Amino acid sequence: MNNLAEEIKRANRVVYNSVTPEQYNRNESIFNPERLKACRKILSAAADASGTECYLDIATGTGNLLRISQSIFDKCFAVDIGENLLVAIKDDFPEAFLAAADAENLPFKGNSFNCVSCYAMLHHLFEHKVLIQECFRVLKPGGTLYTDHDPNYFLNRFYHVYYKFRHRNKPGFGSEIEELAEYHNSYSPGINPENLKQQLIEAGFSEVKITYRVTDRTDLSGMMRVIVPLLRLITKFLPLKSFYTHFSIIAVK
Q1: CA gap 234, 83 in Å, rounded
Q2: What domains are defined for the chain?
Q3: How far apart are CA 74 and CA 234, in angstroms?
Q4: Which DSSP category does 91 fall into?
Q5: Are 18 and 88 in contact (CB under 8 A)?
Q6: CA–CA separation, 152 vs 154, rounded Å?
Q7: Which residues have C-beta within 8 Å of that of residue 235, sequence separation ≥ 6?
């Protein structure tokens, strides 16, 4: 692993060992009713397709998907690089198995899970080949990998120019270490889902579906109060991938 990838990983550990659940849960782009409804639908479909025995949420944070999954899967596991955050939420999930772990070195046997999720996680890693290999390893044959809430390169390549100009004098995420932890939201023009799809296929996944979407957050400010509703309108008539803010992926082993 190169030095930058290690620095990004260390930055994430520092940030998510410092944040409280209350601070984390203020992220309206993740914790809003429409997003939670969409996630429940996707996880339920994954369970129907791949089985309900075992589920793993990677980079669980405060347990956003873990909270949903407990009524869908028989056994639920979650890992996060921030051990302090896991300690803070453990009492909220007495029946789940929580572990502090590196997403690129999962502490589980191969062929263990029916479904693995990585929600709002990929943009925190410099590259994704090792993570994809780990997800493939721990999934059962026919298992489903679900990734979501990552910045779409095809739009973000343009937004990134605005971001760098707007935050030219101070970090957009509050501090230099938070900026580094949000690498593909701050330092790069986002993640190319088509490249990611190719990596998933090369890792052995047989079915890979990309879904593009516009953020459903409502706490918008500045230019975003105009741009986001405009994108929602445009994509109803012109569904080009360069008009969507985020993407999700469903991949089947």
Answers
A1: 42
A2: 3-252 (3.40.50.150)
A3: 41
A4: G
A5: no
A6: 6
A7: 214, 243, 244
pLDDT in tens, the chain (253 residues): 589 999 999 999 999 999 999 999 999 999 999 999 999 999 999 999 999 999 999 999 999 999 999 999 999 999 999 999 999 999 999 999 999 999 999 999 999 999 999 999 999 999 999 999 999 999 999 999 999 999 999 999 999 998 999 899 899 999 999 999 999 999 999 999 999 999 999 999 999 999 999 999 989 888 889 999 999 999 999 999 999 999 999 999 9
Which token pair is 42? 């996707």
pTM beyond 0.90, yes or no: yes
Tokens of 9: 């990983």
- Alpha-helical runs (H) found in the chain: 3-18, 21-24, 33-50, 64-69, 83-89, 129-138, 153-166, 176-181, 183-186, 193-203, 224-237
